[in-house]
Design a protein that fits this description.
Helix content: over 70%
Shape: globular
Distance between the termini: 24 Å
Structural class: mainly alpha
Number of strands: 0
Order of helices and strands: HHHHHHHHHHHH
Oligomer: single chain
Largest sheet: none
Number of helices: 12
Strand content: under 5%
Length: about 300
């Protein structure tokens, strides 16, 4: 039973856990890529670790690994796999902070898809969040798009990152739909089940034998991903699709700090301004909803 008096709702807490897990995952992905490991191999390694952990978790619960709605579960795996490859490519070709910011435009898509396919209402705070996020996105990418020859952000990488965000939002809406009939562990299991063979087929010609240090980091990619997926799936089961995913913007802060610390990246002024707008949008969404509920509760007293 949810705790009504908690300052931070259960769904928000799970999304914060998810954001932290994905931030560390992104840092590991960028590090191993900088040391010569191809993107498809990173995806395959991540999927292998997640598959083992997910299978063990499903067996622990003593439930069927195949679930009930197999076509939708497979679709979630396919869409999620394609989105993951786009996201990893963006992480390996863009500064960590910028790649994460572009990735986290997905709540805009998720809110709209939730409205279209799940018949969820987009409330005023979420609309404000979307508007601020779009303005922040424009501030960040506009210099790159205006001067692609000298920009630090390759336009192609920007487009791939946005494509990954769209794919992620579709996957999140599917997760929200599946949560009505499937256990969270089964939903998570299908993602690496599809991603592993797809990434191996696509990247077979570029596979290398990594060093022991790189293998350890590849394992950590899978572990941090599992933490992120667990938090995400739990959050989507307790919050509306558009609202829950908006809280994940805190990953921008985590990733920016990791980029500065591990890769000596220096975000531009445009990145700081755009990220600030996006974080403000997330805060408006979180606290605006709570304030509205508080006033509504008082009006009934």
């Amino acid at each position: 039973m949810p705790t009504t008096h908690s300052l931070i709702p259960t769904g928000v807490r799970f999304m914060l856990l998810s954001a932290l897990g994905f931030a560390f995952m992104s840092a590991c992905v960028k590090y191993v890529s900088n040391h010569g490991v191809p993107v498809f191999e990173i995806v395959a390694a991540r999927a292998l670790v997640s598959l083992v952990i997910s299978y063990a978790d499903v067996k622990r619960k003593r439930i069927s690994i195949w679930g009930n709605n197999k076509p939708l579960l497979i679709l979630r795996g396919v869409v999620g796999s394609m989105a993951l490859m786009c996201v990893y490519y963006a992480i390996t070709t863009l500064p960590l902070a910028e790649a994460t910011i572009l990735q986290y435009t997905h709540p805009v898509f998720t809110a709209l898809l939730g409205l279209l396919f799940l018949k969820e209402t987009i409330k005023l705070p979420t609309i404000a969040c979307i508007a601020l996020c779009l303005v922040g996105l424009i501030v960040i990418v506009q210099p790159s798009m205006a001067n692609p020859t000298t920009s630090e952000l390759p336009p192609f990488s920007i487009m791939v990152a946005l494509l990954g965000a769209l794919g992620s939002s579709i996957a999140y809406v599917i997760v929200r739909k599946l949560s009505n009939s499937e256990d969270s562990s089964v939903i998570i299991f299908y993602f690496p089940l599809i991603a592993l063979p797809v990434s191996l087929v696509l990247g077979w010609d570029t596979l290398i034998l990594p060093s022991m240090n790189m293998i350890l980091l590849l394992v950590l990619v899978g572990i941090f991903t599992q933490i992120g997926q667990f938090g995400l799936t739990k959050a989507m089961q307790t919050q509306a699709a558009g609202q829950a995913s908006a809280y994940s913007y805190v990953q921008i802060i985590f990733s920016a700090l990791l980029g500065i610390w591990l890769f000596q990246e220096s975000p531009t002024i445009s990145t700081y301004i755009g990220a600030a707008l996006i974080v403000i949008g997330a805060m408006v969404n979180v606290f605006g909803q709570r304030i509205a509920l508080a006033f509504k509760g008082r009006s009934h007293d």
